[in-house]
Amino acid sequence: AEVGLFSAASIMMGWIGAVALAAHGIALQITSIAFMLPLGLASAATVRVGLHHGRGDRVGVGRAGVVVIMIAAATAVCSALLFWTMPDWLIGPYLDEHNDNATTVLATARSFLFIAACFQIVDSLQAIGSGMLRGLKDTRVPMVIALVSYWVIGMPAAYLLAFPLQWGGVGIWSGLACGLLAAATLMNWRFFRRQRFSLLPQS
Predict the structure, then answer these.
(1) Residue 127: CB partners within 8 Å, gap ≥ 6?
(2) What would the pLDDT profile of 106-162 be if each residue is shown by its tens digit?
(3) Using the 8-state DSSP alphabet, how is residue 153 labeled?
């Protein structure tokens, strides 16, 4: 669901133009590299939560969840600060400085990275939330949450902001942020709700 959302965003960027699409590709590559940290933490969360869940240790499940969320939030803040303070250094290696469009692509990618910095935390938390729920053997409802968050909230928001409201590429990235925020909120709410009520059977 998430990969499809970002693929559709690339298609919409192509409707805006070559510069927007190039800047989108660069910003997406940079954020994908940063996403490897929360993705690895999500796998660790699945294992730690799963071990405590198997023992019937409700307190241990909650503690594992809180710890991994704190670590993910800390790494996300570091990534966000890097995006905010050093965007040109991150974007520069992808550009040919002799190309006539290099300056324009740099400026556009910089604006995308600014938004990406803002949603680093929610992007991390949605990955962690999904990982923790897998540790509880809870996968069906999270799948529905992902579909609704990305395709009912994120994609319409991206289209509406980009085209009817004429925000362009910034609107598409803002729509992506809306989808990620919805997924992060719902995934983590479900995890802590289940943990609080003594690991109720999956529903």
Answers:
(1) 35, 38, 39, 41, 42, 72
(2) 999 999 999 999 888 899 999 999 999 999 999 999 999 999 999 999 999 999 999
(3) I
- Do residues 52 and 14 touch, judged by C-beta distance below 8 A? no
HSE-CB of 1 using CA atoms within 13 angstroms: 20
pLDDT, tens only, 160-194: 999 999 999 999 999 999 999 999 999 999 998 88
User: 10-44: per-residue pLDDT in tens?
Assistant: 999 999 999 999 999 999 999 999 999 999 999 99
Q: How many CA atoms lie within 13 A of 104 on its CB side?
A: 9
Long-range Cβ pairs for the range 3-12 (8 Å, 24+): 4/150, 4/151, 5/150, 5/151, 5/154, 5/155, 5/176, 5/179, 6/176, 8/155, 9/158, 9/172, 9/173, 9/175, 9/176, 12/158, 12/159, 12/162, 12/172
Alpha-carbon gap, residue 32 to 15, rounded angstroms:
22
